[in-house]
Amino acid sequence: MAAAAAAAAAVGGPQPPQAEMPAPGLALDKAATAAHLKAALSRPDNRAGAEELQALLERVLSAERPLAAAADGEEAAAAGGGGGPGAAEEEALEWCKCLLAGGGGYDEFCAAVRAYDPAALCGLVWTANFVAYRCRTCGISPCMSLCAECFHQGDHTGHDFNMFRSQAGGACDCGDSNVMRESGFCKRHQIKSSSNIPCVPKDLLMMSEFVLPRFIFCLIQYLREGYNEPAADVPSEKDLNKVLQLLEPQISFLEDLTKMGGAMRSVLTQVLTNQQSYKDLTSGLGENAYARKSHEKYLIALKSSGLTYPEDKLVYGIQEPSAGTSTLAVQGFAGATGTLGQLDSSDEEDQDGSQGLGKRKRVKLSSNTKDQSIMDVLKHKSFLEELLFWTIKYEFPQKMVTFLLNMLPDQEYKVAFTKTFVQHYAFIMKTLKKSHESDTMSNRIVHISVQLFSNEELARQVTEECQLLDIMVTVLLYMMESCLIKSELQDEENSLHVVVNCGEALLKNNTYWPLVSDFINILSHQSVAKRFLEDHGLLVTWMNFVSFFQGMNLNKRELNEHVEFESQTYYAAFAAELEACAQPMWGLLSHCKVRETQEYTRNVVRYCLEALQDWFDAINFVDEPAPNQVTFHLPLHRYYAMFLSKAVKCQELDLDSVLPDQEMLMKLMIHPLQIQASLAEIHSNMWVRNGLQIKGQAMTYVQSHFCNSMIDPDIYLLQVCASRLDPDYFISSVFERFKVVDLLTMASQHQNTVLDAEHERSMLEGALTFLVILLSLRLHLGMSDDEILRAEMVAQLCMNDRTHSSLLDLIPENPNPKSGIIPGSYSFESVLSAVADFKAPVFEPGGSMQQGMYTPKAEVWDHEFDPVMVILRTVYRRDVQSAMDRYTAFLKQSGKFPGNPWPPYKKRTPLHPSYKGLMRLLHCKTLHIVLFTLLYKILMDHQNLSEHVLCMVLYLIELGLENSAEEESDEEASVGGPERCHDSWFPGSNLVSNMRHFINYVRVRVPETAPEVKRDSPASTSSDSLGSLQSSRRPKVLQRENSGTAQVFSLVAERRKKFQEIINRNSSEANQVVRPKTSNKWSAPGSAPQLTTAILEIKESILSLLIKLHHKLSGKQNSYYPPWLDDIEILIQPDIPKYSHGDGITAVERILLKAALQSRMNKRIIEEICRKVTPPVPPKKITAAEKKTLDKEERRQKARERQQKLLAEFASRQKSFMETAMDVDSPESDIPMEITTAEPQVSEAVYDCVICGQSGPSSEDRPTGLVVLLQASSVLGQCRDNIEPKKLPITEEEQIYPWDTCAAVHDVRLSLLQRYFKDSSCLLAVSIGWEGGVYVQTCGHTLHIDCHKSYMESLRNDQVLQGFSVDKGEFTCPLCRQFANSVLPCYPGSNVENNLWQRPSNKSIQDLIKEVEELQGRPGAFPSETNLSKEMESVMKDIKNTTQKKYRDYSKTPGSPDNDFLFMYSVARTNLELELIHRGGNLCSGGASTAGKRSCLNQLFHVLALHMRLYSIDSEYNPWRKLTQLLEEMNSQLGNEEQQPEVPILYHDVTSLLLIQILMMPQPLRKDHFTCIVKVLFTLLYTQGLVALSVKCNEDDRSAWKHTGALKKNTCDAEKSYEVLLSFVIRELSKGKLYHEEGTQECATISPIAWSPESTEKYLQDFCLHFLRITSLLQHHLFGEDLPSCQEEEEFSVLSSCLGLLPTFYQTEHPFISASCLDWPVPAFDIISQWCFEINSFTERHAEQGKALLIQESRWKLPHLLQLPENYNTIFQYYHRKTCSVCTKVPKDPAVCLVCGTFVCLKGLCCKQQSYCECVLHSQNCGAGTGIFLLINASVIIIIRGHRFCLWGSVYLDAHGEEDRDLRRGKPLYICKERYKVLEQQWISHTFDHINKRWGPHYNGL
After folding, report:
1. Cα of 1250 vs its chain's centroid, Å
2. Which among 457, 584, 449 is positioned nearest to 523, based on CA atoms?
3. Cystine design at 272: which of 209, 384, 1224, 1271 (Cβ 3.0–4.6 Å)?
4. Residue 48 has pLDDT above 60, yes or no
């Protein structure tokens, strides 16, 4: 107690002075002060402590100092002291941390608070580009997302999940049961419930409650201080960012606090939402001048925020100062209301009189929003509200957003924050509209709002308490009102309608997107949507909003010249309609699924119709649409249509109860019909002057993402209108809209006043196709959802095989995610498996890589292929053709139909009863007249008709028969028929009976020139085709006198008179045709020749026309014979499969059969017609002139067909050529490359030049060359001695070390040699080129070098370059287009000579050795300056420049000739080694294998030899002497100690020696010299093997061998026995120190093999085998001998005999012994001891190195790429977060090298070195210019080859066998082994350049 009292005294004592302490005194011990204050505050009476703390905070957290630097000059001066802004801020933060911790350590404090974290939510907040997961199986809200950690810790096996890259940022929902099902929670968030969390001790967070309000207020002051109202035009973004940077530590500190868990969050919530402390701190009263100034700044900012446009004057008022808050009301809406928002009069006294409101310069609407205040009033009552205000003001800085979101797991905060957010909604919209960075800002807004509004409970609460819906709709309306323009649709002058201007940034940049997406989000909650649908005022406002989009982006057809500027606004228009109108509509529709929701539908329909009526009034619409105008945007029509559809389908509403009157229906159908006609016009190229964009609109309108919100509702609406309006009126309107009325005449000539002749045909096709679609489509007329899905899928699959993802994309689903079909849902998968078969991806070597495809099953083609659906859904016309072609192919394949089939007729789903009226269209006279006329015209061969027209006509007839009215009784109809209707076309309206009605005469209107005029008129019975069509079609042009026919609506008579005729079907006169005199009055405006009336004799019925058509189509008379006469069964069971597929003939037969079935009369008449055996009608009415035009048409058609045929033939030829030219395996023997196999009598090799086409030999002055590609390669260097390929590291522990690669081993060896031996000698003892070796390959084509030069010139002048660089010498082979970059000259030589050289001679080996030495000794005279030698030189230069300098220069003295020498023979070595690898590492397959045909080694050898001969090796140093002569003075070599010794011969690489020896010989080489060299080198190789063996085995083995061998030494063939030789070697080497220092560590390295004679023999054979393989290949190329094929185990013996090492008489019975191949040129033991002496003298000094150099590894395995894991996710999770080794940041585009596993940044600037980015650099270091990289974020492989790169594709495929480039779909991916094989194959065979086509330059930027 006493201590406490003392402390109290202490507190009481020094308190006053401490308050006035000068600033420097702050440095006193913070921890002590904090502890002391905490103690003081813990007392019950803590007033004194509180005051003291306040005083301290006041000083520490004064906002005056830190930002001074950023503020103006004088303020900076005033602030004085405190160092730079940074220092003071640091100090303040330190104080805060100390105070919070109450004297303890801050970290311990954090840990303590975390212990009390009750949060069961994850709530991790992430920003854009973060990788998160979404599981549709677990999600309740479609926006649900999980962080990777929670996802992987939960169990989602078998779920429908995907990984995605966040676009706007988000937060993890794990643990939130409002958003996802609990089964999906991860392990961490399943268990934690608040029960087991202990209570937070009071004193732990006590300090926080005191300190944090001051801290947050300080932050707010900074924000106020730093904000300067930007100038009118440009916001000063720089200033804002500067302020934000300074505040970074403060905001981060807050963010860290939120991460301490629930306990700290609840303290923060208290602080942020406490209204009292806000009032106290921010009121701006009080004596502190700074605080007052800060408050003023705040008011100014508030005042300026209300501005929507600079010219609006401001009005703001401050309420009673005591309240400390300011209200602001800006009149944002000039001229809307007279009053000023919501200000009371009391406030108006305080105004400063600035009330003059500027008028807006755009279209203004009278505002009918309920509440002006939504837009203008903001009152801040807490820190949270003001913080959000500044967050918006500063355009949502990322840090602030993250802080605000991190708090969300606190429930109380979540509610408060959501309300605040809603309160600021209008302000957000205004800021967004003004923002320059609207994209970033949109993302940040959505980042916040999606967290708030996805939660149904929360959304409902805010809707009820804060009028969320009112606010959203009002804000959206205001937003769009800022960009309205007058609509020019219909009546340009007087239109009162306004639409949004699609060119404005608001629409073009999708700025409205965040607001609309919030709206869609809240409408997905049922409780919210119901409120919306019940609220009439809201619906009215919303329809108002939708009408802004009605008729936007109007297109006017250009008639004269092409439009100058093609506007691209159309995409903005389509996006706006989809997002702002259609998606909310789908959202609302998803809540109208049951009967109980009928009321909602009635509301929507009612207000929708009102809005439509207003719209028609506004645009002054009467009855005819304005010509040459079309808008694709009719959202009001579509709302109406979709709600109607829903009402009938789901809510059992009576359709008629929600339909308007007839007049309104007529108006409703006009605009959708106009769109359909315009589509046909666009496809007929009538809009071609409007540019490409109009086609773009026509495509977008039907495209899969739009069609079910655009074309589908339009067609449905037309179906509804058609089912309720008079059918004659409807059909007439259709033909009139499509402008083909004039075409429908019996006359052979006519004039069309509204359409050019060339468009007539396609417009007629369009009209008929539209009618077919209208009558057969059942999408909204009775199909169930599953049937729709199936139909859509079948249509897409019939056009083309599809991948799973493209199908998902192409099947239109309701854009609202909560609606029926979720992509990937069960119904989708089950329907897919029912209709399609999966074709797994196939790999053609060298072909393109295919993906897994789905293809329709046979029965789908058989029964479900629906051309109507295909036509409706095709974006490109060619897809319809593609579907038909595939259908044809199927029929041919399955043997169902051989010819060219017509689209099949498909049975339809039954109509829903509400729409039965639609079928009346098929039974109306107008349509029958049209069908009759068209059949007649087709039969008479009138122009402008096509098979397509006939097809559609028959389709319509068939539809009519299928849907005929109830069976008519034949008798009744036939009685009194003729009398009753003597003057009309058809007696009734039923198609079945009208089909048999004969029409005798027709009166037609024709131009006077027409052939029909001459005929005199027969009997009076006549009817007039045009007339009758006109009577129903052009009512307003006709005289009004026939009022009997038309019933004029009595209602509003004036207005309706124009819709003059709706035929009254009860009036008997209606059946009569209008009298001719009326029709005479009608003449086409502006028609040039006079029309006269002629009368045609027809005497046909539809049935007779059909039968004649059958004759015409089949080309035979009397081809139709009624099938039922033979087989009466047909009439009983009519569904005959033989009629289901076929061409026109089949269709006609099918129709006649159906007609016969439907009525006995028809059957009788058909039989009668057939009995009459009518000769086909002679086309007597065709004049010569017409004949000419017809012939012309036909000729054109035929020419077109011929051309198609030729083109197809040409294409197939080219294809077959390409196949033979490119196919590596084709066994052609005629490529002129195989010179050596030619017949002996041919004197010289003959080459064809592929440019000039001449053949001839290659000569000195006109050399021929091979087209070659030179490339540096490090593939050889990647060989390892281990069969297991390395794995790609996927954890930190796994690392790849390149020590065991071939390249590394050779490097080490060379540098070891160079340390101890003479440099020039070292460079002859090894080969280089394991890394960066030059590989030469050819396509086998030859050309003259001068031709090539001119070819290159022409390429250089050609500007259109394809991916290669001519300046670097690159080109493509003129014949096979293979990539190449040099030409290798062919050495002029004759084959006969070659054959002579090959004859074996009987010289002894000693003689040959001498000859070889002499030949090598002759210096190669440099050949005379011929063209050939110049080319040889230039190609050598090319070869050198192909690889980098570091891969050529290995000598210690730069530029020494030894370097070039080494480089040249190494090129030969590289090519031989690579060929061996291409053959699989051995020569067992033998034969002139694939590589042989394309090989250019022969030519390459000539070039290399020519250059090598220029460097003669001094005979002293020529290794040849060391191999073949015994040197006397052994000891003399040891004399010159000061010089480095030469490399001992046993350390030489034998293969290198071989190449040196051969290339030093004059070419062409003689076979016996070759064999001699090989024999000599084999002895050396064998000895090396023995030495290596002796080093490998241990001491005991050695002594045993030494002993056994010594015993046999004196036998006859001792020199050919390995035991003797081995023992001799051991004895010789024992003289030196080689075997000594053998400590224990040696034994460990060498495996203790039991060396039996067999294992020894095997070791020696393996040791020598590689040399034999290379040598055999060399012999094969130099002398053209075939390689023998053999088994693997006998490879050694076969090759050695092929090389002439084995004596021919050698018997093969007893086991083969490698030593028998030895043929020693000098006594073996002498030469061996000579060689061993060199070793011994070296090991005297360096025993270790001496031993290491002896053990050579010659058994390299084939090179492989790294082994990749099965599942891509393992790679992705490790690498996409891995930091870059250079800059330790996580790279934006990480990549990993598949050759060596190095992690690199693609395009990363941090790792750039001398303008080379890291990938390019690595490709040069790792693959000498070839790099294979896996892009982690895209799953794609990229190939870098030199200065070019290409995307190769992916080796990871999903479960459906497709790639997922850029991981867009985020489904799990699995390795595709075949693809990886293909990649590896292309890498090893160096064929990237040939196989991959799309190359581009990378400019070192990758």
Report:
1. 40
2. 584
3. 384
4. yes
Which backbone phi and psi does 318 adopt, to 5 degrees?
A: -110, 130
Least confident window among 1125-1129, 1810-1814, 1849-1853, 1898-1902: 1125-1129
Can you say whether residue 711 is alpha, beta or left, with left for phi > 0 and alpha for psi between -120 and 50 degrees? alpha
Quote the crossing angle between the two packed helices 635-650 and 536-547, to the nearest 10°.
130
DSSP code per residue over 749-778: ----SSS-HHHHHHHHHHHHHHHHHHHH--
CA angle 339, 342, 345 (to 5 degrees): 75
Beta strands 498-500; 1379-1380: pairing state: unpaired
Integer Cα distance of 630 and 573 in angstroms: 14
Q: What residue has token string 């605040």? A: 420
The reported pLDDT for the residue numbered 468 is 92
C-beta of residue 212 within 8 angstroms of C-beta of residue 268: yes
Contacts of 1716 (CB under 8 A, 6+ apart): 1616, 1702, 1703, 1706
Q: What is the pLDDT of residues 1436-1454, one digit of tens each?
A: 999 999 988 888 888 887 7
Which residues fall within 8 angstroms of residue 698, CB to CB, at 6 or more apart?
678, 679, 682, 683
CA distance 1497 to 1270: 13
Are residues 253 and 96 in contact, defined by beta-carbon separation less than 8 angstroms?
yes
Structure letter (DSSP) for residue 579: I
How confident is the model at residue 1192, as a pLDDT?
A: 66
Q: Cα Rg for the chain, rounded, in angstroms? A: 46
CA distance 389 to 428: 9
pLDDT digits (tens, 9 = 90+) for 1339-1352: 889 999 999 999 99
Cα 1263 from Cα 1431, distance rounded (Å): 8
| Secondary structure string (H, E, C) spanning 275-295 | HHHHHHHHCCCCCCHHHHHHH
Distance CA 553, CA 180 (A): 41
Output the DSSP codes for 926-959.
Answer: HHHHHHHHHHHHHHTT-TT--HHHHHHHHHHHHH
Which token pair is 1473?
A: 């080694």
Q: What is the pTM of this model?
A: 0.80
Q: Which residue type does 1025 have?
A: S
1723 — phi, psi (to 5°)?
Answer: -55, 130
Instruction: Indicate the range of 897-911, 1377-1391, 1757-1771 predicted with least confidence.
Output: 1377-1391
Cα distance between residue 1351 and residue 1370, in whole Å = 11
1672, amino acid identity:
S
How confident is the model at residue 1528, as a pLDDT? 62
d(CA 1053, CA 1039): 17
Cα–Cα distance for residue pair 902/656, rounded to 1 Å: 39
Question: What is the token pair recorded at 848?
Answer: 């393109």
By the 10 Å C-beta count (0-12 exposed, 13-18 middle, 19+ buried), 196 is classed as: exposed
Report residue 102: phi and psi, to 5°. Answer: 65, 40
Q: Using the structure block, give the residue that is written with the tokens 């050579």.
A: 1752
Range in 427-436, 854-863, 1169-1178 the model is least confident about: 1169-1178
Query: What are 1335's strand-pairing partners?
Result: 1271
Q: Are 585 and 638 in contact (CB under 8 A)?
A: yes
Q: Inform me whether the pLDDT recorded for 586 exceeds 70.
A: yes
Q: Which residue has the higher pLDDT, 680 or 1454?
A: 680
Q: How confident is the model at residue 856 (pLDDT cuts 50, 70, 90)?
A: very high
Amino acid identity at 82? G
- For 1862, residues 6+ apart whose C-beta sits below 8 A from its C-beta are 1833, 1834, 1835, 1836
**DSSP, res 1063:** B
E strands along 253-348, which residues? Answer: 316-318, 326-328
- Look over the chain and give the mean of its residue pLDDT values, rounded to a whole number: 78
Q: Please give the backbone phi and psi of residue 1431, each rounded to the nearest 5 degrees, phi first.
A: -65, -40
Residues 1718-1761: tens digit of each pLDDT? 888 888 888 888 888 888 888 888 878 888 888 776 678 899 99
